Amino acid sequence: MAAVLTRLKRQANTFRMLVKLMKSILHEKSKARPFLPCALGRAWSICVAYIVAVTAMLAGVNASAQQVHVPDTVAQRVLACAACHGKEGRATSAGYFPRIAGKPAGYLYNQLVNFREGRRQYPLMTYMVAHMSDAYLKEISQYFSDLHPPYAAAQAANAAPAVLERGRVLVMSGDKAKNIPACIACHGERLTGALPAIPSLVGLPRDYLNSQFGAWKNGARKAHAPDCMAQISRQLEPEDIAAVSTWLASQAVPDDMSPALATSITLPTPCGSAPQ
Ligand code: HEC
Ligand code: HEC
């Protein structure tokens, strides 16, 4: 009898937690970004992904509490991530969730710590990493960094040729008059990122890119000082951001996505998250 009561209580708690989580996401007034996938006409599939992810996480927690034997591997423990980030972290067709597979482990680790410590804002990401140790986050980061599933096709370049050309010039050469360095100076000539902690810029959806620049501008996304991306984002006018995001999202991914070696990059301005 006591065991049944305990189980019922746990299930009620689980349900209450789920409701609280969903509420915290759906009533987040100050930030439009957590809504974004729901506001794009894919509301229910994405919201169902949330529920699946959280239920999977909670099932894992319950399973370990009941000492049920499940194989305890990283692959097993990160299954919940796939609900939003796609199989093996390859991203989904939802057009917002970023790919995590194949990115430099140092970059992934910095982001997980950023979510945990409030330098990036996404309630479910924060919830998931809130109680994970540095060592565990490192293990997860290395796991996804070592995965190389195929990339999705580039997005259609729905913009005037002049807009795309402006995007290309900013990425390849920057804009001296506006004090914007070329993106390739840090993200590598092929835009595949640089070791140990600079991410690639190809293979990301336009909505996700736009939203990151918005977050840097309004302080919702931060990195350790000096926060070079926040500085650069402040120099970019809204039309520059639209041009850069549209051009980047429409680029085909190179066959060799390996990041540039740290020694091949000299940062034009210092970045706290990628010290040299
Ligand atoms: C409920 C959906 C959801 C689940 C489940 C989820 N994520 Fe995320 N994750 C997101 C979203 C959305 C973002 C982008 C947030 C933003 O706009 O900054 C993100 C961002 C990230 C980033 C930063 C990516 C980058 O390029 O900067 C990493 C790393 C990450 N997630 C890892 C994970 C891992 C590891 C798990 C499983 C333990 C996980 N996520 C589970 C939704 C999710
Ligand atoms: C001085 C070096 C430097 C330059 C120049 C630079 N970046 Fe970055 N960028 C970084 C670093 C470092 C990070 C990782 C920040 C972090 O850890 O949050 C980053 C991250 C990003 C991300 C996040 C990717 C993701 O998966 O979330 C985007 C998008 C980005 N940069 C776009 C650009 C664009 C576009 C330009 C050119 C206009 C540019 N960057 C120029 C250093 C640079």
UniProtKB/TrEMBL annotation:
Alphabetical list of PROSITE patterns matching this protein: CYTC
Positions of transmembrane segments: 39-61
PANTHER family referenced in this protein's UniProt entry, alphabetically: BLL4483 PROTEIN (PTHR33751:SF11), CBB3-TYPE CYTOCHROME C OXIDASE SUBUNIT FIXP (PTHR33751)
Every Cytochrome c domain range: 55-148, 162-252
UniProt name for this protein: Cytochrome c553
UniProt KW keywords: Heme, Iron, Membrane, Metal-binding, Transmembrane, Transmembrane helix
Keyword Heme tagged: yes
Keyword Metal-binding: yes
